[in-house]
Every structure is written in structure tokens, then in C-alpha cells.
Amino acid sequence: MLFDTHTHVNFPEFDPDREQILKDAQDQGLWMTNVGCDYKSSKSAVELASKFKDGVYATVGQHPTDSKEHFDEEIYSALITDKVVAIGECGLDYYHQKEEAGINKQKAEFIKQIHFAQKLGLPLVIHCRDAYHDLIEILQAEYTGQAIIHSFTDSGDTAKKFLDLGYYIALNAILIFDKTGRLAEVAKNLPSDRILIETDAPFLSPNRGKRNEPANVKRVAERIAEIREVSLEEVSDLTFTNACRIYQLEKSPSTGLRT
Ligand code: NI
Fold it and tell me: What is d(CA 246, CA 26) in angstroms, rounded to the nearest whole number?
């Protein structure tokens, strides 16, 4: 079984065939967490998850640059169900935001979501671009819970800082295209109990120019297997087990629609 720990089947790109994508995933034993980036996409992620017994989960939260909103704990609290497995994606993105006022807003919104996750006992799903120093400083000051570093593309030294905090590192198709070898080095050295795989679909397709889909998470698993010189089954198993642990899920065969 595979677990796409970060995908967006809740996004409009999947309007034409969302049901088929979810049905295929259930048939293939592919589990997924649909991630919210603002109130609307968080709500749709929760609604999608509510239709299934197991295998489809949701996060709620506000992306540092995709959302112009202010994070309101009261409004987001109303979205929390037993299928919500994390808070995010939230974090810091200085690549898309270089103004001081914008950066200060990002920090404030991030801290609100950190406190929300801490209160609920849910892990954070973290988006970080060109902001690792500030991100780690904020987390060390404000948070004692668990986190996933989504779409990790940085160095082994940065990965180590997150591992030291007990966090998980999620890899996607960027690993397949990485020509520098730096990310392969990270993938090779990550402890087996901290690696996750994801697609970030509809983005970051391993088939350039095409919409990405949760099923392509297998391509990421294959690349990791190649790098670590282990079988695909081993990578599938360990990443699935890790996903269940961080999302606090029981491995369960009860997939299918809720009746
Ligand atoms: Ni995403």
C-alpha cells in the first residue's frame, strides 16, 4: 500500500474526474491526505474525507502565500472532524514574499496555526521556501508537537535540524528531477522512520506538462528505492507506516464509501 501524504484532489483541477480518482485510489489501496491552503480548500478537503471510511483524510490551514485571509481559529475549529489529521499547509515563503510587512504577516499567521495545532494535538504540515532559519527559530520558541516538512528540497544539514526536532521529511517528484544529487543524498541518509512520500498534485508532475495525480506517488517511492538500494515494497511499507504514525491512524482495511 502507498500513502500520498500531501495532495490536493480537493482543488478545482480535479473537478472533471475527482470521483474516479478517489475510487481508483481506494481500489488500489492508495491512501491520501488532501491538504487545505485556505478556508475554502480546507472545507472541501474535509468534505471529501467525510465521504470515506478510511484512506482519505484532510488537513485544514492557511498557506503562507496562496491565501490573503487572516487565520481565524474559531472558523477553522468548526471544520475539525475525526478525519482531520493535521494543521496546514502553513509556514513561511520568502521566495514569493520579500516585503517586510508581508513577511511579518506570514509569521503572525504561522504562529496562530502553530498554537492551534498544539492545542488540538495534531501535527503541522509545513511549507517552507527560502525561510528555514526563521522557521526553525519560530518552531523552537512556540511549538513542542510533531510536524511534516512538506516538499523538502534543501540540504542534508537543514534536514538534520528538522530530524533533531523529531519531524518527518516528505519527498516528491522534485527528487526524480534533481540533477545536483543533493536531494538524492538526503533521501539516502534519512532515517527509515522519518521519510514520507507525497505528490503535491495537481502540481509537480513527474510527467512534465501534465496534471499530477496521487497515483504518481509510486514514482517517488520507486526513486527512493533505487537511491537506497532496497525494494519498492520496503519503501512502500515504511512510508505507509510512517504516514499512519504521524497522522495518528490505525492501519485498517475498511476502505470504501461511508454508507
Ligand atoms: Ni501543497
Answer: 21
Question: 54-88: per-residue pLDDT in tens?
Answer: 999 999 999 999 888 899 999 999 999 999 999 99
Between CA 93 and CA 91 the distance in angstroms is 7
> What fold characterizes domain 2-246?
TIM Barrel (3.20.20)
Q: Which residue has the cell 484532489?
A: 9
CA of 23 to the centre of ligand 1 (A): 21
Residue pointed to by grid coordinates 537506497: 228
pTM of the entire structure?
A: 0.95
Distance 12 CA to ligand 1 centre (A): 14
User: What is the rounded CA–CA span in Å between residue 122 and residue 29?
Assistant: 24
CA 27–ligand 1 middle distance (angstroms) = 24
Query: Distance, CA 7 to ligand 1 centroid (Å)?
Result: 6
**Ligand 1 centre from 42 Cα, in Å?**
12
Q: In the beta sheet, which residues pair with residue 197?
A: 171
Domain residue ranges of the chain, discontinuous segments joined by +: 2-246
